[in-house]
Write a structure and sequence with these properties.
Elements: E1 35-42, E2 45-52, H1 56-74, H2 82-87, E3 94-95, H3 98-113, H4 123-129, H5 141-148, E4 157-159, E5 162-164, H6 177-191, E6 197-201, E7 204-208, E8 218-223, E9 230-236, E10 239-245, E11 250-253, E12 256-259, E13 262-263, E14 268-269, E15 274-281, H7 284-309, E16 313-318, E17 323-326, E18 333-335, E19 341-344
Helix pairs in contact: 1-6, 3-7, 6-7
The protein binds adenosine monophosphate and magnesium ion (MG).
The site of magnesium ion has 6 residues, from helix 7.
């Protein structure tokens, strides 16, 4: 079995591996290969937006502004956010913006589609483990059991743009917010006339344009959970490549490693046999919901969901170091470390 790599907060799990042009080099403003990048720290992660072509600077500003705006809506700790208002409404209804209502609707829908693997009501349990603050601890069984009585996606009522949760509950969109922000940042880029861009939201990659301006596909690295850098590459067109990995946040106590993605059935870190799950598809929000779910579901559950859904591809990495990929990416996927590879066919 290969060893889990240490947490590297700045090193994202997916990285853009190739580029063309350089924003600092002088060249005509109309050169479509010319690119610029803008970065920000938001949603607890480093985000970089790289855009090509003449409207790129306006596009990057619009995209980063949009991500900052969405963070203010969805932060669970910002007392001015909509999610904070929902969580502290003491059981009354809270009016939210259409984007928050849409994302909540997706999260509730995906809870059903993933047999409950995606659960935005786990926030109190995540807090008890310290995953929200970094003050890690292992709650005892009775504490977890008690906290689990305050969860339940079926207790969230979404009526148009009004959200109501019971007073003993709190929700958190952390498992889906980055993907949705990526989608909306892409829309902001498009509105500024940008047709080619790559967004890296803490390792979640989203692309605008089927190819880079030079006509080549985007080449995305899949982070090696057992070492530094990437373990595989994937060539993609426009869409999202989003990974959930236990290595992104974990702590060790008494020789046991506790990872940040919880199994909603137990309130404890998911022990699904996977160390990483990547969802590849058209929409960031959907792939973000999926990657967290696939990680929780494990190989068998993930394969079942893939067969039922038919609208995404995936890369699963097992604890033993095996890579399991789906047939839609077979020709564009390449291992860059020695490992076993299995392809799932329909
Ligand atoms: P992601 O990186 O998108 O997989 O999201 C993981 C984050 O979502 C964790 O750091 C937690 O804050 C939260 N989380 C953990 N387990 C779950 C779960 N089963 N469903 C929804 N959110 C979760
Ligand atoms: Mg996710």
């Amino acid at each position: 079995m290969r060893k889990l790599s240490p947490v590297l907060p700045v090193l994202v799990c997916l990285t853009m591996l190739s580029s063309c042009g350089d924003s600092k080099a002088a060249s005509p403003a109309s050169d479509p290969n010319e690119k610029s990048s803008g970065s920000l720290f938001a949603m607890d992660t480093y985000i970089t937006v790289t855009a090509y072509g003449e409207n790129r600077d306006a596009g990057i500003k619009a995209a980063t502004d949009e991500i900052s705006r969405l963070e203010k809506l969805w932060s669970v700790t910002d007392t001015a956010s909509e999610i904070y208002a929902v969580d502290h409404a003491d059981g009354s209804g809270t009016a939210v913006s259409p984007e928050t209502a849409d994302l909540l609707s997706l999260a509730i829908d995906m809870h059903g589609k993933t047999s409950g693997a995606l659960d935005i009501s786990l926030y109190p349990v995540l807090c008890a483990w310290g995953f929200t603050t970094g003050e890690y601890r292992v709650p005892d069984d009775s504490e977890i059991d008690e906290l689990m009585t305050h969860t339940g996606v079926d207790r969230i009522a979404l009526d148009g743009s009004t959200v109501t949760i019971p007073a003993d509950m709190e929700i958190d969109l952390g498992a889906v917010a980055k993907g949705c922000s990526g989608d909306m940042a892409v829309e902001a880029l498009k509105a500024q006339g940008v047709s080619c861009a790559l967004l890296d939201l803490g390792g979640n990659i989203q692309t605008l344009g089927e190819t880079k301006p030079d006509g080549t596909k985007w080449k995305i690295g899949i982070r090696d959970p057992f070492g530094d850098g990437s373990a595989a590459t994937l060539e993609t067109g426009e869409g999202a490549v989003i990974t959930s990995g236990g290595y992104e946040r974990y702590f060790e106590q008494d020789g046991v490693i506790y990872k940040h993605i919880l199994d909603p059935k137990t309130g404890r870190p998911a022990e699904s046999g996977l160390v990483s799950a990547t969802a590849i598809g058209k929409e960031g929000r959907y792939c973000d919901a999926l990657s967290t779910s696939l990680y929780v579901l494990g190989e068998e559950g993930a394969e079942k969901l893939w067969r039922e859904s038919g609208d995404f591809d995936m890369v699963l990495i097992s604890e033993s170091g095996e890579f399991i990929i789906t047939e839609g990416i077979e020709d564009s996927f390449e291992l860059t470390v020695p490992a076993e590879l299995r392809v799932l066919h329909r």
